[in-house]
Fold Lysine 2,3-aminomutase.
Amino acid sequence: MFDGSPPDTPRAAPRPERTLRSAAELVAAGLLPEAGRAAAEAVAARYAVAVTPAVRRLMDPADPADPIALQYLPDAAELLAAPGETADPTADAPFTPVKGVVRRYPDRALLKPLLACPVYCRFCFRREAVGPDGGVLSEAELDAALDWFARTPAVREAILTGGDPLMLSPRRLARIVERLSAVPHIEIIRLHSRVPVADPARVTPALVRALDTDRALFLCVHANHAREFSAEARAALARLHRGGGAALLGQSVLLRGVNDSAEALEALFRAMLAARVKPYYLHQLDPAPGTARFAVPIAEGRALLRQLRGRVTGLAWPTYVLDVPGGGGKAPLGPDFARLEDGEWRVDAPLRPEPPGPE
Ligand SMILES: *Cc1c(COP(=O)(O)O)cnc(C)c1O
Ligand code: SF4
């Protein structure tokens, strides 16, 4: 292909694609207008920014309402805190028995080995904590956290989160999975990750091998839009499924402008299922600072899910949950189809009783 360089001029090797991490890089890549640079710089000084090559390929710079760009590109609105927003909306801090562990429930606890993510979501509930620098447990701290799991027999499930546990080196991840698998009372190892959709190239054979365990291993993939299930993402998920036999679950956040219609949710959940990912949770947005532009009221969320019930395969139905502010745990938000009226249960039918139409 003619590329403008005169014949016989030695050309520089193509630069490997890199993750974009600053306002200047986003402007240079044509993802932000020059006029937006100063505001984006101010946001990036406060909250981490990262757009991987895979995510960049999903973006459509010609679409001013692009549901992918909206999730990752810094916006001036992030510097405005709305009433009710807090730095630690899920109140992890009081539930931390040792550094890197959060135990809010009797039978399961989080292990946060690092705070880095492949991308930084603009609506993140841990946005005050996550970022590329710092936030990695030292070897001694990781040992202490793993020891805590080993001497806490009521805890049957270790949930690796962060940050994103698939950002660990395969060697470090393998060590954690091995140590947890050696604890007799750990029955389930769960990982929450955005890597399979945000940076599928990280899902190497070594990373898949690191997850090899005789314990039940659940990988909960965070994705919010059907388009995130690209061919590369689906291939990465297939490697994870076939490699160690991980069970794949999906978690999404209900987000204004990204998935706030019945059509967008249906497409998202269908794309998940086609990639062997069972929708597990649809989260109500946690009120982290500067995230109000993404908020969808609970009544609207319930109405959206109600439209899917019956019409879309039951496999697609997630539990719609709110992490109750202050650390009370995740509560299901419905919608309910049953209610007590004058001592009698009334149950709404999700479908009108008509047979399905012709083929
Ligand atoms: C979300 C969460 C869990 C997992 O809850 P499940 O309902 O089992 O998915 C565990 N611990 C903490 C602190 C959490 O925030
Ligand atoms: S991947 Fe998860 S933890 Fe990381 S920025 Fe996004 S929402 Fe936050």
Remarks:
- The pocket of pyridoxal-5'-phosphate (ligand 1) is lined by residues 90, 102, 104-105, 108, 110, 159, 330 (CB under 6 Å).
- The chain has two domains: 23-79, 93-341.
- The domain at 93-341 is CATH 3.20.20.70 (TIM Barrel).
- The chain has a mean pLDDT of 93.
